[in-house]
Amino acid sequence: MSTKPTLVLLAAGMGSRYGGLKQIDPIDDAGHKIIDFSIYDALRAGFGKVVFIIKKEHEKDFREVIGDAVAKRTEVEYVYQDMEKIPAGVTIPEGRVKPWGTAHAILCCKDKVKEPFAVINSDDYYGVSAYKTLYDFLQAPVAAAEGLKPYCMVGYQLKNTLTENGSVARGCCRMNEAGYLTHIEELTKIEKTAEGARYTQDDGASWTDISVDTLVSMNMWGFTPDLFDELENSVERFFAEEMMKNPLKSECFIPIEVGRMVNENKVSVKVLSSADKWFGVTYKEDKPFVMESIAKLKEQGVYPEKLWD
What we know:
Blueprint (H helix, E strand, L loop, with lengths): L5 E5 L3 H5 L15 H12 L3 E6 L4 H13 L3 E6 L21 H6 L9 E5 L2 E2 L2 H12 L9 E9 L10 E8 L5 E12 L4 E3 L8 E2 L5 E9 L3 H16 L11 H10 L3 E8 L4 E2 L6 H13 L10
Parallel strand pairs: 1-2, 1-4, 2-3, 6-12
Antiparallel strand pairs: 4-11, 5-13, 6-11, 7-8, 7-11, 8-9, 9-10
Helix pairs in contact: 2-5
């Protein structure tokens, strides 16, 4: 068992977004996917194990396309986000096929993860420095005050997360003077403008400018294993109070649940900032930029031509 921090990758939605794992597009001539660069960065930062959260039906493809190469270099575990993993007495709504959300997905790791761990989206590129920053915190987690569970997140400047090709959803963060999270506001439609950025909360009827220096969450978190006890409460509350408001689509999201824990004074979340540029393929038009960015990083010597050779 690894005594180093573990990297947990949220990958249960990959098949649905891309129409099957074998259709995930490479982002360089060597055939790498964004997930390959994330794992490479985490391993060289010091992480000791990789846990993939996937759908059971994708396991064979996932191992062939991604997992087997990683397993030659570090310990690998697979966790299944199962629709049936729900509280006793809950009935799955007829027609529901969508997973229950990121908080539910992470809870599925409870039996596999016993050490401090990071959580990331499997199809987002976070940059090299973020993993080292996360690793250092998770080696010795420190809470803001005695009695609070010590968590962290890596925040990015909004300007480093926008796309030219449409709107994005971002969790905008507020912190206290000591750099601990006090509030996350989920803005679901932010777009880049000539002057900076703006958002709407009424489907475009009105717009509000937002500073491009605003720190936002990109779902890059650091937790200790006691998170699972909190998430059990979160998931039970979700099914009791939220799920039936939108039975086919409602989800239990980790930023919302962590924000709730902060408000209830159960946890502290240290905000670790990154100056790196985040990128991902939110829209198919984003892919050329992602490929160009990776090519430049290789030219600069940040990555070898083939990661796993």
